[in-house]
Amino acid sequence: MNTGLNSSVNPAAPRLLIADDEPLLRRHLQALLAEFWPEAQTTLAEDGAVALTLCQQQQFDVAFLDIQMPGLDGLQLLRELRRLPAPPLVVFSTAYNQHAVSAFELEAVDYLLKPLEEARLQQCITRLQQRLSQQQKPQANLLHLQQLLSQLLPTAAGTLPLNEAPEVKAATSETEPLRWIKASQRDTIHLLDVADVDFFLAEDKYTTVDSAGQQYLIRTSIATLEQQLDPQLYWRIHRGCIVRVKSILKVERDEFGHMTLVLKNNPTELAVSRAYQHLFRQH
Questions:
Q1: Domain residue spans in the chain?
Q2: According to the UniProt entry, which residues carry 4-aspartylphosphate (predicted)?
Q3: What backbone torsions phi and psi does residue 92 show, to the nearest 5 degrees?
């Protein structure tokens, strides 16, 4: 998403766009916004194409988008909005939660599920107000924030910029080991300290990140993670699993020579393939 200053943003009277092909639903959201954000000015669009045209003709601070709309759906619309010189902040309002990962990868500010909960919408409005307020700060402050984020999520030279990057980056011999990961849990994106992760487990197209029994999802492969993690602190124990060494309580071996890891604060037991059993042999 374009991170340049939006010179027309007025936190006292922000301009909001609602795009939804269901008239009753967009009117309902309009009524809620009028109640909880009365100073905002709201414009309605009946589909994605109309919303795109409106955004090309005039500037909005926030766009509330349905995902499943005829023609140009919400995710496609967000990709088009990203091309604008000063794109609006985007919030998805949808009845479907399976698009949450894609939405946050495109840097949507929030993801609201229908039917809308008033308390949840109020949280979203607070978040938007904070973001709009930040856009009023001097450019130097924004650059400083970007530098801090870059330190939290280090990128390798030649990779995508922070605002278009996946949850982790490919490491090179010159980069430090991975320290932070952006991972999804239901409709929320979490910034996880790698030091708190017990293990990574490959699951179909995703990788499960397990921290103290809580599971999160990322799209980074085990092979890529192995290159990014500190090999002294994280060991690969079979083709689909990497474990944090400090999380291991003990290693159990059965009569057939199979090894299983028992973790300290996690109920999951992890199998060790024969190719990696040498890591746990006494010397």
A1: 15-134, 150-280
A2: 66
A3: -90, 135
Query: What's the CA gap between 149 and 142, in Å, rounded?
Result: 11
* CA dihedral of 219, 152, 170, 223, whole degrees rounded to 10: -50
- What does the alpha-carbon distance between residue 128 and residue 244 come to, in Å, rounded to a whole number? 37
**81 near 55, Cβ under 8 Å?**
yes
pLDDT digits (tens, 9 = 90+) for 89-105: 999 988 877 666 666 67
HSE of 76 in the Cβ direction (CA atoms, 13 Å)?
Answer: 11
> What single letter denotes the amino acid at residue 65?
L
For residue 37, the tally of other CB atoms under 10 A from its CB is 20
Write out residues in the chain with pLDDT < 70, as ranges. 1-12, 98-104, 135-175, 204, 282-283
Phi-psi region of 71 (alpha: psi -120 to 50; beta: other; left: phi over 0): left
Helix, strand or coil for residue 63?
strand
Could you say which of 3.40.50.300, 3.40.640.10, 3.40.50.2300, 3.30.1360.120 is the CATH number of the domain covering 15-134?
3.40.50.2300
Structure tokens at 1: 């998403």
Residue of 210, 194, 214, 193 whose CA lies nearest to 202: 210
Q: Read off φ and ψ for residue 77, nearest 5 degrees.
A: -60, -45
DSSP conformational letter for 32:
H
pTM equals 0.47
Provide the residue count of the chain: 283
